[in-house]
Structures are given as C-alpha cells and as structure tokens.
Write a structure and sequence with these properties.
Two copies of one chain form a homodimer.
Chain A: H1 19-34, H2 41-48, H3 52-59, H4 62-73, H5 93-118, H6 122-134, H7 139-155, H8 165-186, H9 197-208
The first copy, chain A, binds a DNA duplex through residues 1-2, 18-19, 40-42, 50-54, 56-58, 61-62.
DNA sequence: GTCTATAGGTTGATAGAC
DNA sequence: GTCTATCAACCTATAGAC
C-alpha cells in the first residue's frame, strides 16, 4: 500500500494491522455518522484510503463487511462483563447503583449507533439477532447482571427481602437504555430532558431500602 | 407541492385520492418489514399498484415520501394522550400500572418499526428529531404522563410520599421500551425473555407502596 | 494483496402521451 | 392525475495487471 505522504496514522497510538482494519474503521465511522442507507462500498474504500476492490477481497461482499462491523461494534460489551459488580455491605446502595447505571449508559452510547444502523435493514437485523442468540447476548444479559447484583445485596440485608430483583433489574436497565436511545435519536439538541442517571439511581436505592424499622 | 398530512379535500366526503393513500400504506408496510435500506420508490409503487411516476407526483421526491410516512407512523402517539390516566383510589395500584404499561407496550410495538427504520439514515433521523421537538413529542412525554399519574396517586395516599415520581416514571417507561425494543430486534425468536409486563407492574406497585405501619 | 478498469444491474427522477 | 418509456448516475462485484 502506497502511503508515501504522511499516510494512514500507523504510529504508536494506532497499531492498526493494515488495510483490513482501516476498512473496518471507515465502515464503522460511516455507519455511525451517516447510517446504513448511505453506506456504500465506494465510500468506505474512499474513506479508508484503499481501493474498492480491497473491500471485496477482505470481506467477500457488502454483507460480509457489515457483519464484521457489527462484531467489532459489539466489542464494548465485554467491558460490561466484570464480576466486580458484587456489591459491598459498607457502601451505600445508591453509590453502587450509580456506578452500574453509568457503566451501562456509556456502553449503550457506544453500541447503539451500530445496532441502530443495522436495524434499518431487516435481513441484517435478523442476522444480527441470530448472532446475539448463539452468543447468548442481548438486553437480557444486562438484566441478569443487575439482577444478580441486587440478589447479592438482598442477601447482605441492604435490599428489602420482598423486592422482585428480576423486575427491578429490568427497570434499571430499561431506564438507562431509554436515556441512551433518546440521546442517540435527538443528537445535538436533546430537547426536554429525562431524569438524570444519579437521580434515578438514588430513587431506586430508596425504593429498595429495607422496610424494617422505619 | 402536495400537502403532507392534511387531506386533499377533494370533494365533500373525500372518498377519492386512493392513489396517495395506497402509496403511503405501501411505503409504511415496506418500511416495517424490510427496513429503510431496501425501500425504493419502485418497490413502493409496485406494491401500491401504481406507477412510479405517481409517487413523485404526490410526494415530490423520496425524502418527501419518507417524511409523510413518518408522520403517518407517528399517528398512534395520539392514542397515548388520554387524560383517562388519572388513578382511582379504589383500585389496586398494580392494576392501574398494568394497564398503563400494557398501553405503552402496544404503542411502542406500532411506532418502533417506523422509528427504527428512520434511525438508519442520519439525515432522516435529524429531520425526524426536529419534528419531534417542535411538536414537543418524544420519550419524555411518556415519562411526563406516568409521572403525573404517580403524583396523583401519591396525593391519594396510595404511593409512598418520599418516592421520586419522576425517576420512577422513567423506570417504568424504560422497562416497557426495552421490552418492545428487544421484541423488535429479535423478531420471531425472542430468545431469553425479560420479566413480563404484569410482573414488572406488580414489582413497581410493591416498591411504591406507602411505608406507613408495616 | 492491492491496484485500475469495467461490466451489469438498480436507482431516483423526468418527459410527454392520454 | 396517471401512465409508459427512458436517462444519467450510482451501486455491487469481477477481471486482470503488477
């Protein structure tokens, strides 16, 4: 590849393996900022600084490219996996919840652009959904995660024993998701705002507080 | 240029103008089942049983058509407006909440296909968002609605006075939204399920119950 | 592995008859 | 108002040189 003049940033900060990754990055960027409907192999190649033929060489066809992009866009999910989510008895519930909601928030922010773009094509969406299924990914994982955390806190006596942790987990994840989704939809001008993350976390903490000896 | 939403008023009862509506219906259907990326003026015309030229005659260009479709797809929002949401003191909180969540659920189910399709194109999304802004529509409206309901219930003594109704409303709407969104994404094969609507409604009702005299 | 050049098909949009 | 016929532009994908 002839990157003679101050070519592709391949310095210390970008250990990019070459053309293949450039194409992936370009596709990811275009997908996020222009949407699926405007994504053409030509534009991807142009943005990546490579020829269009290279796109087909590396990914077979356009669908192959998009699937690869989706997988790349799914990466941030791994950062949501940590088992560090087990609560501690000496921290206020609201603090832990704030951290959790904050982590989910930034995860959604990164994942939504890709997922929403994929959502524009029925076939791609189906392929994507299948991929999620076989990896056992999807929104339910976030709910599971929070559910497990809440159950742990319940055993520590920091959550009302009669509380439905599973449903509560859905409430929490749903709130984060809706906030992210609205931000994604509204772009620059957020319009009327929804309740903040910390406010919501505190509200949940209060609702979940044990009812013993009020 | 043809008017977008207001009817053509062709004659007293406006029974005519079959073509325009056929086009709108066809576009709406195609958008829902195949996504934006696969929506071509040719397919719309074919499905509507009219010529392609008619599409351009009525809507100017493709963007005009899509904007009209979005407006049409936004219609179901009006069904979520009713002020009948004021709670009664003689009904269990869980029952009212189940009704509310159920209504939101079916609203999202109808609105999501269009909104998600629009989401696939950055320009359309921006135009759509602007439209939402000037009409003061969007997710925050649902939150407002539920918030108002909860506040009413609080005044009736059926909800704990210290509860944050605004944040709680976000939790409820978010849960409904996430459930709908997952269903939309996963299609036929829902995969691992999230907590059900009624279960969630009951959980919220329990969390919100007044703490007096336990 | 990457390029240039191009084939073959689709798209959005227009012109003009009726 | 609706149609048929058509165009120029664009798209995906392939062939072949290097």
């Amino acid at each position: 590849m002839p990157d003679l003049l101050g070519g592709p940033k391949r310095g210390p900060g970008r250990p990019s393996e070459g053309v293949r990754d450039s194409i992936l990055d370009a596709a990811l960027a275009l997908l996020s900022e222009s949407g699926l409907a405007r994504l053409t192999t030509r534009q991807v190649a142009s943005r990546a600084g490579v020829s269009e033929a290279s796109v087909f060489y590396h990914f077979g066809d356009k669908v192959g490219l998009l699937q690869a992009v989706v997988l790349a866009g799914l990466e941030p999910l791994k950062q949501l996996e940590p088992a560090t989510l087990t609560g501690a008895a000496d921290r206020p519930l609201a603090d832990s919840l704030s951290e959790i909601t904050s982590a989910m928030d930034s995860f959604f922010d990164r994942a939504l652009p890709v997922v929403e773009a994929i959502n524009g094509d029925a076939d791609l969406r189906a392929a994507f959904a299948e991929r999620l299924l076989e990896r056992d990914l999807g929104p339910h994982r976030g709910v599971q995660l929070v559910d497990r955390y809440l159950t742990g806190m319940k055993e520590l006596g920091m959550v009302e024993t009669t509380a439905d942790t599973h449903a509560t987990a859905l409430l929490i994840v749903g709130a984060c998701f809706l906030r992210s989704w609205q931000r994604h939809l509204m772009g620059n001008d957020p319009g009327p705002e929804l309740p903040g993350l910390t406010e919501t976390a505190h509200a949940v903490a209060q609702l979940l507080a044990p009812r013993t000896a009020d």
